[in-house]
Amino acid sequence: MEEESFKSKEIGDIMNEHFVCIKVDREERPDVDKVYMTFVQATSGGGGWPMSVWLTPDLKPFAGGTYFPPEDGVNHVGFRTVLLRIAEQWKENKDALLGSSQRILEALRHTSEIRVQGQASPPPAKEVMDTCFQQLSRSYDEEYGGFSKCPKFPSPVNLNFLFTYWALHQTTPEGARALQMALHTLKMMALGGIHDHIGQGFHRYSIDQHWHVPHFEKMLYDQGQLAAIYSKAFQISGDEFFADVVRDILLYVSRDLSDQAGGFYSAQDADSYPTATSREKREGAFCVWAAKELRALLPDPVEGATEGTTLADVFMHHYGVKEAGNVDPARDPYQELKGKNVLIVRCAPELTAAKFGLEPGRLSTLLQECQQRLSSARAQRPQPHLDTKMLAAWNGLMISGFAQAGAALSEQGYVSRAAQAAAFLRTHLFDPDSGKLLRSCYQGTHNSVEQGAVPIQGFLEDYVFVIQALFDLYEVSLEQGWLEWALHLQHMQDKLFWDPKGFAYFSTEASDPSLLLRLKDDQDGAEPAPNSVAVTNLLRAACYSGHMDWVEKAGKILAAFSERLQKIPIILPEMVRATAVFHHTLKQLCFLPPATYPLPGQVVICGDPQGEDTKEMLHCVHSVFSPNKVLMVADGDNAGFLYRQLPFLASLERKDGKATAYVCSNFTCSLPVTSVQELRGMLSP
Prior knowledge:
The protein is an alpha+beta fold. The chain is 48% helix and 8% strand. Helix 10 packs antiparallel against helix 15. The two termini are 51 Å apart.
């Protein structure tokens, strides 16, 4: 529509004559987007972007839709005609339009309300978990992984749920299938074209069933969630393949999406100019290759391979390159990828090596050399546009990705990068006077960081993703300042967003009169719904602070969503996972001369965080996937905050002067354990 309609002088003149036109960045203002998308979905039966909505002067919607072509066609009305008809109706039938708008709004208020019904309680975890697993299993693609035919999205929320389901059902066939579904999906994604094999990171989604041809946009929130889920895959499987994917994602983010001040940029566009002299951008131009181009870049004969073999032969075979291009024309309606290749691993390394008479280790070296050459060549192409907007919520997801990777891979550099980004949030997206988060800031001139003239206040998603990130960062860095800030933000979130009547959190504050509806997101999508993450955050916060009212709040959220969780849990897999955590004991791990009474499932480890014996236990904790553990470490001067929050910690002692673990259940602690092997057994789901 930008090219077809908004750049048209004729259409622009019509818009400016009859309407006050406002362009909204839905990433900056998800609250505005959500209200009017709800209207468009209710009145048209569908939704999506670009979205055009016509409002009264007091912001009430009366017409809307998604894509409009510029002119009328056989089966559609053009944008020009829509504009003129609406302008005419506003002059001739204004009262009817206003009445219709008011009736629709009242209906939306009723149908979009999520609230606790009667004396509803949290739904039973087993039934909800089993139903969600069955629904995912039925939609699973056995050959290529994922949960639809096409388009195919990474959907980290589904994979996170499957890992938790496996952890709680390890000895059952269902548990084994859950693990297989998740690991196979992650492997096929990493081998596919949705993964950028030259520039690293993951594209937005695949337009086909095979994870081959992507929509080439790269989003920060995908990188953060995928770094975390691939870290879990490595914890569970021990397969270095998954660890390498984690490193790949974080290399891309560190190089291309990082601001010098420490924050993370939002996205990299899908389209770019094919050459410096091109006048039109093309989707994927920065990422795709012609076979002729690859042969020119990789002409070297391969020593020790079958006679006549070049680097190009090996690379092109391994990555499915075809002389005429490997993109199905049916998937390329505008012929932007004609004659081009999207790299996708088509052969196991052993098969590629065997075809050319190479040792597998030698093949790996050759492919790395090819990737480096192609990376250098690609760097000479015009770069896609970089969206240097920095959002609190998405930065939170990326901090979690770095922190969880640092823990699972024992990479201190990742932990340091997470801490740098958290410090950026505290400096640029937190108002210490009000104690509130801000939504966004921007790369300014001369590498400065700028705010808008009127800063946008943080939304619920900003709070929950930042709180989650701070908990993740605390557990791997042991810096109690992050924990203290997380608990402060949890109190502020309760104050700003909690619904005391219907339970759960609204997505927006009550203080903005321009918003016609206060809504609660009811689906996990590309990002988990804020209330889904809030449940786990509240449970973690209770373990860190001893405030049991947070456990009660977590239960009230699950009660408010109980009907959805029991009927269609597949739309809320992250909240289903949180339901299991709520019903199963949270394992709380504390390293300290450690808490009024222990909470069920706590594991307390008393020891000096700098001591080698404590470090061994910490490494053990970080190397084991346990979906319901909470880790605390404190000792000596560094333990003051935790001692004040959890007085029972002071009653636990080291055994024989060694770092000592205690597992707590039913509000009592087990016998002390000093063996890492025993601790590993205690942590296993």
